[in-house]
Amino acid sequence: MAVSPEISDMLARFTVAIPSWGFSPMGTRFATFLLGDEARDIYGRIDRASEVHQATGITPGLALHFPWDRTDDLGALGRYIHARGLRVEAVNPNTFQDPTYRLGSVAHHDPAVRRQAVEHLLWCVEAQKQLDAPYLSLWFADGTNYPGQADFRRRHEAVLDSLRPVAAALAPGHTMLVEYKPFEPAFYHTDLADWGTALLVCQQLGAQAKVIVDLGHHLQGHNVEFTVALLQHAGRLGGFHLNNRKYADDDLMTGSLDPYGLFLIFRELVKGERLYGRRIESVSYCLDQSANVEAKVPAMILSVMNTQEAFAKALLVDEDALAAAEAEGDVIAAQEVLRAAFLTDVRPMLAEFRRGRGTPEDPLRYHRERMAPARA
Amino acid sequence: MAVSPEISDMLARFTVAIPSWGFSPMGTRFATFLLGDEARDIYGRIDRASEVHQATGITPGLALHFPWDRTDDLGALGRYIHARGLRVEAVNPNTFQDPTYRLGSVAHHDPAVRRQAVEHLLWCVEAQKQLDAPYLSLWFADGTNYPGQADFRRRHEAVLDSLRPVAAALAPGHTMLVEYKPFEPAFYHTDLADWGTALLVCQQLGAQAKVIVDLGHHLQGHNVEFTVALLQHAGRLGGFHLNNRKYADDDLMTGSLDPYGLFLIFRELVKGERLYGRRIESVSYCLDQSANVEAKVPAMILSVMNTQEAFAKALLVDEDALAAAEAEGDVIAAQEVLRAAFLTDVRPMLAEFRRGRGTPEDPLRYHRERMAPARA
Amino acid sequence: MAVSPEISDMLARFTVAIPSWGFSPMGTRFATFLLGDEARDIYGRIDRASEVHQATGITPGLALHFPWDRTDDLGALGRYIHARGLRVEAVNPNTFQDPTYRLGSVAHHDPAVRRQAVEHLLWCVEAQKQLDAPYLSLWFADGTNYPGQADFRRRHEAVLDSLRPVAAALAPGHTMLVEYKPFEPAFYHTDLADWGTALLVCQQLGAQAKVIVDLGHHLQGHNVEFTVALLQHAGRLGGFHLNNRKYADDDLMTGSLDPYGLFLIFRELVKGERLYGRRIESVSYCLDQSANVEAKVPAMILSVMNTQEAFAKALLVDEDALAAAEAEGDVIAAQEVLRAAFLTDVRPMLAEFRRGRGTPEDPLRYHRERMAPARA
Amino acid sequence: MAVSPEISDMLARFTVAIPSWGFSPMGTRFATFLLGDEARDIYGRIDRASEVHQATGITPGLALHFPWDRTDDLGALGRYIHARGLRVEAVNPNTFQDPTYRLGSVAHHDPAVRRQAVEHLLWCVEAQKQLDAPYLSLWFADGTNYPGQADFRRRHEAVLDSLRPVAAALAPGHTMLVEYKPFEPAFYHTDLADWGTALLVCQQLGAQAKVIVDLGHHLQGHNVEFTVALLQHAGRLGGFHLNNRKYADDDLMTGSLDPYGLFLIFRELVKGERLYGRRIESVSYCLDQSANVEAKVPAMILSVMNTQEAFAKALLVDEDALAAAEAEGDVIAAQEVLRAAFLTDVRPMLAEFRRGRGTPEDPLRYHRERMAPARA
């Protein structure tokens, strides 16, 4: 399969960030099972992320999570990361574990709790600057479990009040990502329930605030690719948390259950560049999955492969042919164009691309043969 | 039960509009069953709506649907309506039945089709002016059935282009309501999929464009009352299409399956007036249900009763007690406050209210005893 | 790609039936749009099905629907069908359109209505015998729209009472398929709501009654392939109505939105033969889709292609490798096995298979080039 | 409100069991917040349950969970329980926390793991006998997270093989409850996914095996009351885990979000006794909720109150009037009958009932005034 220069160039510009928390023990509310491959500390997590990058060649970015990844010396942390050929893509604050946050953080009714949350957020902005991370990635567990528990509008205003100083503190060129989620851990309402809410908040916070789409944070049936297209068109698409789900926020490996849905999302992003001038690398792509029963490093590698394949298939979509089919109202012809791209086996094309860059042709096999034994 | 002046005043200001199409034969894609109570023409539909108003006393407004309700003489139509003590609340265009609209109307790829749709919309704006209807209520069936069938962003721009001249043509004081719906009759994407999309569109169209919430137009689990509160807070809540559903857009009688959910929505609206100064009558309430197996006029009356009861219970909510519970983080106390309101049997209160206004104490019984025999 | 004899044999045994009603005007409750390719009568529908079979080579079976396909002379109908190289796979009764059936058919509270329905069903059993159709395929619109409308248990007993004589009338070797659906056109409860209900009914009706799975008749998130495996294991899987959906019972082209899900279902069926001795052709596969915006014959052909590709990919799954991965609890290895099958481009393999049987290598292109112009 | 003897008798026969685990620290996968009211050990949990019973008067039954509630001396445990006026209603095994169970328990591919699970289950049967608990309540977290991870049918057979000796070990008169759940903690398939699967399993295990319905264990839209009616009609309804949810298995307070849905379920049970001779107390009612943000004892009391009110309203339904409405096909009349029951404020009736039995008229106020201060 001959790869066109345009496709080759787009493949080269596509990277996926790896979350440090993905190498920590994770589980459900029922149990957390250890497989023995969990990292002990942030340095171990960086090493694991480095293994993923060695295998895939497209994951230089790292997403950190504070305070989980907190160290006394952020400078040393940054140097450790760079020494492994990695960089920090995103800083993720945590305002959902401290007992103070039982009834919320940035939306809490008590100003003292909100202040505590904002201080942590501002600390994270500083960390972002020190680590030169382009993205501050915000997810809040804020919400209520019962009707009447709190006033929606007061909480909404509190979210805005809390985030305004954070947005104002951002370095130029840095982006604040605002994540939404319909439920869990709050089970009646969440203060950032859907993309519309996140958009409303971002509009109040200025141009550096953008929406991040976690693929598992939608009600059943939601057309994610349409939301992606709309947000990008409105200039408010900031990035993705990649994973897969069948039911709720299952946080399974990306592409493991709905590879066609993943393809359709990337098709909108590829079209965003080809037809609307939004460069593919202008948004952040970060894995966010919870490996409850499978080995963590291979799970990351597999998700990266699934993601890259979905992206590669999207690159094969003939937009001219689709435009012609639309102009003629020929739905069948449009289906044929998408089929032609999706049915293509892109593994040879990707193997060639990887060979050309000196990275392993089969990332998962490489990891199994070279690195896994090394650790044992 | 002694009714406070505030409650009495709010009850008096609350009205529900009746849709003319609710008295036409309606069904599913599988069959339309006639019960014999369908109206033959617009005048019959007005007569039916008048029966509902006589029984309930709170439904003077009428929603018309064009071209279904088209007559040669709109002036005569208006006089017929006024002669029955009714007024026109909303004008509803129809751009989904003409064969031209198979692939869309305001979002269609063919400018000629879009023009046809816009011309009809502009005709409806004129009708709105002639009939002095405060609301132009827009719902579009536009969407696609398959990935690749059309370009989301082009269609989104087409929607905006189509609606701009319509918004510009509105009379001062009139409102354009933009409705959203996640699916049906389009089954892959709809151009106005959710409240976020409708909000984006309204923001482009100016202050007279607002979002209308159809209670059945959400994915399963969506917290409708939170959306209502947010939209009102953002100044973009325009009104409601009232009905109930268990699965999709089932268009059942309002309050027939989830009376507590209906109560929670009205509780946000009552709070909107009490705490945030948004008068209860500043948005439109219109039934929109499809009586497939039940008698149509009684179905309307029952929905109005369910709606008024939900509103009345919402009036009983002690917001001070809720605020105190929230300040103390006492979730159980908040539940008790809502329970106290919802568990109250408001039928005596409403009977007293109706007596005081000279309308029937039990609307459904009144209709059964007085009006139904009269027709037979 | 060398095709093993086992795979070649299984490909040869796999057929998909075409529903006559798929060539009639179809739509939603909002509108029915004509594309001009609708057939005028049953003979036109047979001709269309014959076109599909000429293009695909694997669709000799026809599903008829009565009274839609009723003729004075069933013998002549059968001869017309055979003359085109087709056979009748299934007879589908219709007890949902007659005005009598507003509140149900086999579950109706009125014995006279139930009798009318049973008489039609018995007529269909006779037609099944005359046409030598192995399957009687039953779907009922029975259900209620509101709580309290009817007694669930009385209706359940009525269903059993109505179907017992029908089951008793079946010819030896013939199968009665019982279909389930959670909602639409009934919106509160349906008398055959889910596979558990259908199973309960089949258990009462004897060994010739089996469950048919319509891919669109599940609540969001339902794991269809697990249900398929369980039903087959319990000896009660009778067949499939193939289509695709994103939201409700959307009746889109099979495989158009979730090709991986279709693959997973066929993987259970292939495994059913390979590991559990249930021959792939022991159940019925029938398209059941509603082409609202696309051309009907190509839509059928595309669905057949999608289905055959999903089946072909399922044939490539290495069950030994999966069993080994399971025995070692290696989730990642299992994913690699499924990936290896699904990512393979099976179009060359299928082209070779078709060549070997003298049928067109690319069914859709064949239809476009040869047959569509012929009609014009 | 005069209470009829029949209603009074049914109220007196209605009890709700309290789960010991409801007084332990509980949370989500994100955090577990302590409110300070958690019990330290099983004796503290029994004391809490006793408080609930003192307040409500209808909660003498206790559900125990092993090994969480394990003590060296089950006899002493039983005596402690009886001394507080309580009895053991159900014994709940736990085969989901031990690290061994990462890939399942009764369905695990490794016979050694299955044996470990079965041994624990058999131990629980012995505990059930010693504690004279009528119900052994089984819920398994067994399932898979990814397609291909395991063979559905092999696991299904393993479930049956594991449970057969357990069913055989039951004391006469004792019941084994088999619970189903569509997802969580397994996110691709669960081995007991829905009521149909649980029914299939119970049918293999004999007459003492019945299905338990957890109100939160259904996909969105599932008509729970229809399932309840069907299961009871088939002689396989064993009991309930009571809670409420808006999204997934949210485990909120019973009746807190959908009081009408709870009413509809109890209406089927009341009808089951009145029309079909299934005594209301022939199935088990047990709370199963997770108080993440609210005080635990009041949360239990509130759920019991909501449950008793839903039951009381169900007792007010005029079945004769409903039967008449059904016979006439009068959907509106049926709605009026249900409205008449549900809109009635049953608090006075229940206060009178409680007074007559010497228990507090307002359980929650009683607890707040008498017992909560006593602990402080």
Summarize the structure.
The structure is a homotetramer of 376-residue chains. Chain A is of the alpha/beta class and 376 residues long.
Which two chains form the greatest contact, residue counts included?
A-B, 54 and 54 residues
The unreliable regions of chain A are: none
C-alpha termini separation of chain A: 38 Å
Side-by-side strand order of the widest sheet of chain A: 1-2-3-4-6-8-9-10
Structural class of chain A: alpha/beta
Shape of chain A: globular
Verbal overview:
The structure is a homotetramer of 376-residue chains. In chain A, 47% of the residues lie in helices and 12% in strands. By secondary structure, the first copy, chain A, is of the alpha/beta class. Chain A has a single domain (5-317), classed as Divalent-metal-dependent TIM barrel enzymes (TIM Barrel). In chain A, the strands form two sheets. The first copy, chain A, has an eight-stranded parallel β-sheet. In chain A, strands 5-7 form a two-stranded antiparallel ribbon. In chain A, helix 2 (42-56) runs antiparallel to helix 13 (363-375), helix 4 (111-131) runs parallel beside helix 5 and helix 7 packs parallel to helix 8 (259-276). The radius of gyration of chain A is 21 Å and the shape is globular. The model of chain A has no long low-confidence stretch (mean pLDDT 96). Chains in contact: A-B, A-C, A-D, B-C, B-D, C-D. Chains A and B meet through helix 5, helix 6, helix 7, helix 8 and helix 10 of A and helix 5, helix 6, helix 7, helix 8 and helix 10 of B.
